[in-house]
Amino acid sequence: MAVPWEEYFRLTLQEKLPKKILEQNVDHVPPLLHLLEKRQELVDADRGLQAQKEVFQTVKASLQQRWEQLEQKEQELKRAFVRFEKFLREAEARRSRALRRAAEERQQADRQEAEALRLRAQLEELQRERARLQRRLQRLEPCARLLGQVLEQLPEFQEISELVARFDGLADTQEALRVTERQQLSELEEGRARQQRLRDAWQDELLRLGQRRAQLLEQLEAARERTLHWESKWIQIQNTAAEKTLLLGRTRMAALNLFQLVCQHQRRPPDLDIEDTEGQLEQVKLFILDLSTMLARLRQAEPSAPAS
After folding, report:
1. Helix (H), strand (E) at residue 36
2. Distance, CA of 168 to CA of 12 (rounded, Å)
3. If DSSP codes are grouped into helix, strand and coil, which group holds residue 187?
4. Mind listing the pLDDT tens digit for each residue in 41-61?
5. 265: closest CA among 278, 293, 284?
6. Alpha carbon 109 to its chain's center
7. How confident is the model at residue 29 (pLDDT cuts 50, 70, 90)?
8. Closest listed residue to residue 266, CA positions, set 293, 291, 232, 249
């Protein structure tokens, strides 16, 4: 870390001051001489500091120049490293292209060899086919002579090819009729099988519907029984509800009568709503409790009255 100039000069001044001055006894030195010595010491220290400053500046300039040279060498090394990496990449690219070209040439050679083998096999197959056709031609030569004789007897045909075409047409028609017959027979068999499946499915469906009808009848009967049961329950509930309602009305009337009697006994008007049955019963309860307390007090006071 860099040291500030003031701190550097202060440290250097402390090193340059003679230690003997610190050891002298200031009582035996005249003040003026002591001041001159101090000034001389300051001048010497300033010269030393100036010399060290020049040396420091020289060293600093040398270091700066050395640092610039190092930075320049570093840049040169970086550029050389970049050029070397570029050279390596180009060499790798050339090597890859050469390997790829060699692989493509090998593949092309293999393809050409395979194509040559295929063509050789095809040539052999064509030669065998040519020999087979020649043998067939030899076998069909009597047929050709026979067709020539038939052509002479059928004036409506001018060429053997027309006769052969007519025969091929008749053969194709016969084959088409056979195919149509087979298709129709197949369709007939499929129709019969489909009809049988429909019959079986219809019988199964009838059986299933009969079973389903029986189940629905059983469910209907059970529903009717449940309906009758719940209707009787509903009538019973309605009767019970009517009885409970009547009992509730009587209870509320009794509570209202008791509450009115209590109010008449206490000589105060009723201060509760007619529908507030709970409040009325609470007031009657409080009145009964107060009356019970008064009766208990009277019972306790009766024995003490004769004694007096």
Report:
1. helix 31-153
2. 129
3. helix
4. 888 888 888 888 888 888 888
5. 284
6. 51
7. very low
8. 291
- What pLDDT shows up at residue 158? 67
Residue with tokens 């045909």: 157
User: What CA dihedral angle connects 81, 86, 87 and 92, to 10 degrees?
Assistant: 130
Q: For residues 268 and 40, what is the distance between their CA atoms, to the nearest angstrom?
A: 126
Give the residue-averaged pLDDT of 206-227: 89
What is the predicted pLDDT for the residue at 262? 80
- 307 close to 294: Cβ distance less than 8 angstroms: no
Q: What is the pLDDT of residue 84?
A: 85
Under 8 Å CB-to-CB from 256, ≥6 apart: which residues? 274, 277, 280
**What's at 45, amino acid-wise?**
A
pLDDT of residue 1: 44
Contact predicate 52/13, CB 8 Å: no
For residue 109, name the pLDDT band (cuts at 50, 70, 90): confident
Count of C-beta atoms within a 10 Å radius of residue 46:
13
Contacts of 160 (CB under 8 A, 6+ apart): 144, 147, 148, 151
Q: Which of 277, 248, 244, 240 is nearest to 260 (CA)?
A: 277
What is the residue type of 4?
Answer: P
152: pLDDT strictly greater than 80: no
Residue 147, token pair as written in the block: 């067709």
